[in-house]
TrEMBL record:
It comes from Dictyobacter kobayashii. This is ABC transporter ATP-binding protein. Belongs to the ABC transporter superfamily. It comes from the Bacteria. It holds the Pfam family ABC_tran.
Amino acid sequence: MQQEQDASISTISTPVVPIIKVEKLVKRYKKAEMNAVNEISFSVAPGSLFSLLGPNGAGKTTTISILTTTLQPTSGSVMIAGYDVARQASAVRKNIGIIFQKPSLDLNLTAEENVRFHATLYGLYPFRPSYKTMPRAYQQRIDELATILGIHEDLFKPVKKFSGGMKRKLEILRSLLHNPRVLFLDEPTTGLDPSSRRSLWEYLSKVRLEQQTTIFLTTHYLEEAERADDICIINKGNIVSRGTPARVKADLVEEFVLLDAEDRSSLLAELQHLGYAVSEQAPFKVLVEQPQLHTLLKSITTPLTLIETHTPSLEDAYMEIVGE
């Protein structure tokens, strides 16, 4: 009996503690008539890929600025890795890596010098005057990341000679140096060619798998957001949709099939008799999800001349909001 009780206790799952928890977050700028962010709440599971989407002016940049401690909230709370962003900003910064849209590199330094000063600033290694005098662990880490990102041969060149894509790669390298628990990526692949984008995402996937790094992404490449475990769409300071990519698409965009026939009156009467929501004009738009489509088609006896399915994409869902 005792063994049965112990076994039942062991099967009870422990609730996952969010790595990021946002509760009723508000930000209102001085002299503004409305909140830039209006009491939004969401949480992010550790080791997940979370994507925050929204049109320009939606509150996306304000939100990520608060989460990365560069902007103070008006009210509400944000916890990252167990630390409060407003009261424990220093501890939060030690647990996060950040890649912003606008480069933050010193153009007068070499690529390696930019990384070395960053490592010193984060307290990862004591400052040394050159790459060769830095600890072996630093050298191995920077060599590994530079090779993956394809800039190993450019490490000791001045950043002012770098292209936009190379600067982005260097910022990515710098942000990953201290193995952050949460990596904030604000449009991370802007300026990268398709091959570099692919290699970056391959490495980020590896980081998530091996180190359980949480990735918080904002992007205009919606195919990148499709990779997310969870998506949050914000508009005019409010969350308008939240969930898996499939859930968000289902919430915002209809799944339907277009049907037509030479005998349109018979087809319309049949569809209405079957109880489906259908448009009055041909080709007939029938609201039906993919699992039920086969059943619908088998039920129709009128010969069809058109069958055209429409499965919503994340871009469709996003445009529903932007289109407002």
